[in-house]
Amino acid sequence: MTRTDVLNLTIREAAAQIERSALSPVELTDAMLQRIARVDKTLNAYITVCGEQAREVALAAEKMIRAGYHLGPLHGIPIAIKDNIYTRGVRTTAGSKILGDFVPQEDATVTARLKRAGAVIIGKTNLHEFAWGGTTDNPHYGTCRNPWNPERFPAGSSGGSGAAVAARTCLGALGTDTGGSIRLPSSVNGIVGIRPTIGRVSNHNVVPLAWTMDTVSPMARTVEDCVLMFEIIAGHDPLDDHSAQAPVPDYRGELGRGLRGLRIGLIRDYSLSHVQRAVGDTIRAALTTLESLGVEIEEIAMPSIQGNISAQLTIESCEPSTYHQEWLRTRPADYGEDVRTLLELGEMYLATHYLQAQRYRSVLRKEFVEGFKRVDVFVTPTLPFTATPCGATKVMIENNREEDMLSAIMQFTGVPSLAGLPALSVPVGFDADGLPVGMQVIGRAFDEATLFRLGHAYQQATDWHTRAPSL
Amino acid sequence: MSPHEPVTPESIDRLCTLADLPVPAERRKGLALMLAGLVAAANELSRKMADARYRTVVPILRFPER
Questions:
Q1: Is the pLDDT of residue B60 over 70?
Q2: Cβ pair A300, A271 in contact under 8 A
Q3: Which residue of chain B comes nearest to A331, CA vs CA?
Q4: Confidence check: pLDDT of A36 > 60
Q5: Are A285 and A429 in contact (CB under 8 A)?
Q6: Which of B22, B43, B62 sits opposite A329 (nearest CB)?
């Protein structure tokens, strides 16, 4: 097997080869580390590369497997972890100067579960400072770049995880998603990312952004690989007060069920409105493919959907500013300019603004509950535009009108975040400049299985996910 | 702060005093420009949520709901 073949393996493919000793975890880890050495000077996807530690773990995995002990599909698989998720003994900066020297004494629950499953933690990925922003233009650890075009942004805040997976420097990664921070980079880097139902995956020992919206979850090149990681990290955690007791289904068992009879909802005057033409055309083509697989599509009105961006900005302003209150007074100069500004602004909302935004969430959630009586999932683009140039603070979506990046980037991903619903981003094509387009699929609370089933069926019928950036 | 008045650097000064947040004078103009837009949108949402049809709606502050 050539080096290129190894780099292009999915988790499922690599796991199958490792299990039958056709591929060594050490060989796989070394290939990833060499790939990081070659491309990450350009991409800046990693804040810390755990080279020596990763090799030791890979060697131990190899010995275990040779001795007849195979821990499952993540055994010996190189995985990257966003740098706001605790890793015992490995610096966890949250992309900040403030936590620049923080070395946790404990793992996050998600890290511990991946390690128990035999995963090889290959490094900690770059992010927007404290996950508060959507560009991964990090003033402390450098601007992260998009593997499909390094002049373009990888989105964020989990931009390092998105770029690392797309660039074949790891087989999967963990990200965090508050208002879209897994789905946005998954979309613009041409990979798959799932935001889980709040409570499905533990947030224990993850640096918070907004407590009532934060989630942790996988990013990978295929839906099936996301499932392999999700199965390991999902489930109740007594260390997290927000963790749900809901049983975790057999996601892999559900994947092959097909889509016949599945009902997709498009939200009237929203799902396909105010998007770049290439994005709209690509999503419509994806819907046509899904219809050929047996889904039915229905348009549904959701009158409360307008107002979602203000609600999200209000909550995502007030909650981080509460967490950062002390540092903002004692170390204001240690924040990057954009995050410092957002944290200062978050102190200037009224309590009534915050509570009205939380009441809005109840209304929005109720409309989704009603909508789910008629359809199984809702579809939107993940973003209304493709990757913008690095450093851009404005974006043009239609009519040659410039819009503020922060509001524009939340147009579609904020809605499931507010409603507490799971949402999957799956790659569905490219624009004329060769930049990926992602489709967001929103599901019922705790019904990630249907999202995985739809995304997997789509990937079985298309080949977008097999294309690689030419780095 | 009235929704009909623009947010000014002086408004920022007053809010910072209330929040016990020291913000250097040179930052206040930029913050005022941004806050004007954010507060206008938040006030619009508040007016919507004050409508009688939403009178019984309570905030979600915890997921999963109990």
A1: yes
A2: no
A3: B22
A4: yes
A5: yes
A6: B22
How many angstroms separate the CA atoms of A455 and A192, rounded? 9
pLDDT of B4 strictly over 60: no
User: For B16-47, b where at least 16 C-beta lie within 10 A, e where not — what string?
Assistant: beebebebeeebbeebbebbbebbebbbebbe
Chain-chain contact of B12 with A348 (C-beta, under 8 angstroms)? yes
pLDDT in tens, A202-227: 999 999 999 999 999 999 999 999 99
- Which residue out of A24, A82, A161, A271 is catalytically annotated? A82
Q: Of A26, A10, A43, which Cα lies nearest the Cα of A172?
A: A10
CATH fold, domain A3-466, is Amidase signature (AS) enzymes (3.90.1300)
| Residue A195 to residues A57, A158, A178, A181, B55, Cα–Cα distance (Å) | 28, 12, 9, 9, 31
List of chain A residues whose C-beta atoms are within 8 Å of the C-beta of residue B57:
359, 362-363
Chain A positions touching B13 (Cβ under 8 A) are none
Residue of A nearest to B24 (CA): A332
Q: Is A94 left (phi over 0), alpha (psi -120 to 50) or beta?
A: left
